[in-house]
């Protein structure tokens, strides 16, 4: 709000993919959440012993 336009553009565009508006942080966070959900599902599946 109190900064000039180039400062705001640099701050907002640092982790943003080109022309998509998708932030890299949110992609990594979603991947981590999906990995955790997948591992939780694998713990629920019964496994054969022997």
General description of the model:
The protein is mostly helical and 50 residues long. It has one domain (5-44). The chain contains two helices and no strands. The longest helix is centred in the C-terminal third of the chain and has 21 residues, at 24-44. The protein starts with a helix and ends in a 6-residue tail after the last helix. The model has no long low-confidence stretch (mean pLDDT 76).
Beta-strand segment tally = 0
Q: What sort of overall outline do the alpha carbons produce when their principal axes are compared?
A: rod-shaped
What's the N-to-C terminus distance? Answer: 65 Å
Rg, nearest Å: 20 Å
Quaternary state of the chains = single chain
- SS field, number of helical segments: 2
Order of helices and strands: HH
Question: What does the main sheet amount to?
Answer: none
Helicity, in percent?
55-70%
Question: Residue ranges: pLDDT <50 for 5 or more in a row?
Answer: none
Number of domains: 1
Give the amount of beta strand, in percent.
under 5%
Nearest-integer average pLDDT: 76
Structural class: mainly alpha
Keywords: Membrane, Transmembrane, Transmembrane helix
Protein name: LPXTG-motif cell wall anchor domain-containing protein
Transmembrane segments: 24-45
